[in-house]
Amino acid sequence: MESKRKKVFYHTDNFWGYLFVSPLLILMLIFSVGPIFFAFYMSLTDWQLSGAGSFIGLENFKELFADETTWKELKNSLIYTVFKVPIGVAISLILAYFLNQKIPFRGLFRVIYFLPSITMTVAIGLVWRYLFNSQYGIVNAILAVFGIQGPYWMADPKWFFPAIILVAIWQGIGYDMVILLAGLQNVPGMYYEAAKMEGASSFQCFRKITVPLITPSLFFVIIMEFMNSLKVFDLIYIFINSSFGPMENAARTMVYGIYQKAFVHSRMGYASAEAVILFVIILAVTLVQFWGERKWVHYD
Amino acid sequence: MTDKKRRGKTKIQGIQIVSFAVLFLGLIVMILPFLWMVLTAFKTYAETVQIPIVWFPKTWTLENFEYVLTTMNFLLYYKNSLIMVVGVIAGQLFVCSLAGYAFARIDFKFRSQLFLFLMAVLMVPGQMTIIARYLLIYNLHLSDTYTGLILPLVPSIFGTFLLRQFFMGIPAELEEAARIDGCGYWGIYSRIMLPLAKGGLVTLAIFAFNSTWNDLMWPLIITNTEEYRVLAVAVATIKGAYDTKNNLLMAASVMVTIPCVLVFAAGQKQFIEGVASTGIKG
Amino acid sequence: MKQKKKWLGFMLAAGMAAALSACSSAETEETTAAGTGAQTEAQQEEPAAEETSGEGVTLSLYYWDILFKEEIEQLIADYEAQNEGITIEPTQLPWADYWTKLETMLATGDDAPDIFWVNLAHLIEYLPAGYMLPLNDDVMELDKYSQTATDLLKGDDGSYYGVPFLLDPNVLIYNKAMFDEAGLEYPTEDWTWDDFRTAAAALTKDDGSQYGYCFRTDSAQGSLYEWLVSAGNIPFDYNNDVPQFADETAMDGWSFVYDLMYTDGSTPTGAQMTEIQGDTYFSSGQAAMVFGAPPTIVTHAEAIGAENIGVSTLPQGAEKACSFSVCSMAGYSGTQHEEEVQSFLKYAASQEGMTTLSSAGLTAHLDCFDVYEEGLGIDVGAIQTTLENYKLVPILYSVGYNSEFQGYFNSCIGEVYLTTGLDRAGIQEIVQGYSDQCTALTQ
């Protein structure tokens, strides 16, 4: 930044950088890093329920790759992510833009659009299950208006998982919207005024000013969405829990599988192995995104 | 000139109308499950198991709340949840804003490597680390303490990343100007960056509130006694092995969720278009 | 030189951070020590002081059912009154996360509960893991307990590992008002499958507003599993890990229910009962009969009115048989206070202890039935008959290795009853497919 002279250590960027990061780093090292290494180690053991397992090398991984449910879980996690992330983020972005307009009842709208993310997951599962009901549900009633005979969403393995993804998108909107809404606060109002003077349309304003200026928030939202989607559990668990057999197989994702292996089948080591695979996938996806960061994210 | 200005204005109204209309249409879908939750808290059990679903209770009953309040020590749970949530929010705002600022603006060695290393922590599903984390807390003698409830939730990578993005979005010129005036990193952080990142801090506080308030697994694992029980755990105990009485469950849920709504309603007021940036202009 | 300075800087930063974070946590830490350094020390001493003070012994007890809250507290209060110096601290945990919590505690050992509730499926898993405390011979008066229940709690070493406080055989629950309306006799204890089928058809209304029968489509109690058992089948031979639900006897059960559903239309379809949990049709007053464990009688009664609830035995197929589950109260093998644990369990297993518990649920203690029935306020003599005269088959084990069988069995139920237009051979083909998958698993 300034002309580089020899500086005393407490004037260096390194000192201040590490000083500022240290509270986080120390707490992290204490509370999280150890358990994670422990989980990694477990993946190489046959740890079951009772205390110590013995080291078995890569056996767990071999078994995982040979098991077709692993592939099913992987496939479902990816499908979920591929649909949930882009659609969810796009809707959230548009909603955040709308909710940032000077409109009547803006505060109320914001609260209501945030409600899905704080409503009990149990209630969400129950109500959506009902909305998707083939006889009484509103979803098929709407489809019927267009002359479409809606499927048995909750009783047809083909439609069960897509229905869950729909609910997931619905539920996730609130969170992303809030982050983007907060990001919009960094967009100086004068930019819009200037653009309007130039006669730009609202859509042009949105595309040319809003979106580029909130790319830092957008980047954050996309990274987190990818991570959380690949790790999805709660909603899947709630829906599967009140269904049975074929639905479970249609909708099981990786973390669902991990949970089952660990706490239902009591195979900690085996579950850890799947967690390691998931970790590697998320890491790869995240690294690619950070690599692409400078290409589209405009800071400042 | 005036013509253009007027045209601009009508367009603004256009987007406002569109916004309002779209948001209004979406209302019902967004509110339904929440509404059902609230309404069900006032129903009898019989009404919760009807086919098709019953939306409005025939006679509104307060019995569910009465049951929940008499069988459970809600006052204590509120206190515990509140202590936990305040501790976590205070801790996260401090720890994450410092680290977030450093990752955004201070050019220290191995910055990006360290950041990615920390991000990696987020990539391991929590289900896998729960036993080891419990062991750790137990060996630190922190089980059944508020410290144990709070401290492990303080180092939030989510929060650090969120604030990093906010700090990065703040114009660098402001920082340069302060530096020329002789401000150090601490001064820039505390006097310039923090006020500017208000939106980010509020967002983090909202999220920290919701995730901590509703966190079930962590408090469940590290506390054993009633004395340290939090709301989320208390609510979960209503679910039975055979049947769950949704009227009771929802009554308890309502009592847990209302504070979340209030916190968000208060927090969202901070999101006002353009103010942050125009305010500091100059 | 430069290196050293950097290192020093880092240390300094670390020190400061530690101090800072300690401060920030102390702010919120009202109850524990105020100082930063003293804080951790104080906490380290706390539990130790408790252990060695000699004041008395504190035992922890985990359980999950909120319906038992009052009774458990009563039981403990009575016990504490008789045993000076022993305190028992009950913790009621959420059912959904009970096992996760319990297993975390057991896996780490030190903090595990001294006494805990455990169901059969988990007990079977915990036994070989060495978590279970063998009960002293004098804990249970065996002749006072249902032998079906106690036999399952017996280890290979001949010791018993749990006090069965809850015994849930499956029964037929029916809606009296619907029988009255249709002018039918109430189900009797000598009903056969044919009687059941005739009544179910008569109770079904053509407009779909009322069905004769509904059932849960998972493998919980009250599901299809009952029909297999009643047909004389034992769906799984757990001793040898052999699936038997595709046997010829089982096929009678599969196809009988299939006919009820698709030939007679006297149950909602498989799809309907997947969209809405099957037994909800009974609670909502849209089905006249359902199977269920005793605890569900209470909830059904609350939904349709206790005066409308009747309870009978399961209709008799090839055998008088039904499924059952058992929950027991057990001790942890690693407890520091074995003597006290045994003494508490002995009290719980006594007639006095079981009488306290019986007002919340059906215990396996044979002399407490009246207390249970009185607490319920519904005539449940059929449960007594079931316990005395029926072959009781344990429900599917839902944990560990066995849970994988359960998974296949569930999928099988789903596939059979979601598919329309099957005949017996078609059903057989599907069921056989799943049975083969189970067999493959065991090899």
- CATH topology tier name of the largest domain in chain C: D-Maltodextrin-Binding Protein, domain 2
Tell me the CATH superfamily of the largest domain in chain C.
Answer: Periplasmic binding protein-like II
Give the overall pLDDT of chain C as a whole number: 84
Helix content of chain C: 40-55%
Which bin fits the share of residues in helices of chain B? over 70%
Helix tally of chain C equals 19
Low-confidence stretches of chain B: 1-10, 274-282
Along the chain, the helix and strand elements of chain B come as HHHHHHHHHHHHHHH
Q: How much of the sequence of chain B is in beta strands?
A: under 5%
Structure description:
- The complex is a heterotrimer of chains A (300), B (282) and C (443).
- Chain A is mainly α and 300 residues long.
- Chain A has two domains: 1-42, no CATH class; 58-296, MetI-like fold.
- Chain A has helices at 13-42, 59-66, 68-99, 106-118, 121-131, 138-145, 157-184, 189-197, 202-213, 215-230, 234-241, 245-251, 254-264, 268-296.
- Chain B is mainly α.
- In chain B, 54% of the residues are buried.
- Mean pLDDT of chain B is 86; it is low at 1-10 and 274-282.
- Chain C has helices at 2-28, 36-52, 69-82, 98-108, 120-129, 147-152, 176-182, 193-203, 225-230, 248-263, 270-275, 280-283, 294-304, 338-349, 351-358, 369-376, 381-389, 400-418, 424-442, and strands at 57-63, 86-92, 115-119, 163-169, 171-175, 211-213, 236-237, 242-243, 287-292, 309-312, 321-331, 391-394.
- The chains are: A mainly alpha (300), B mainly alpha (282), C alpha/beta (443).
- At the A-B interface, helix 1, helix 3, helix 4, helix 5 and helix 7 of A face helix 1, helix 4, helix 5, helix 6 and helix 8 of B.
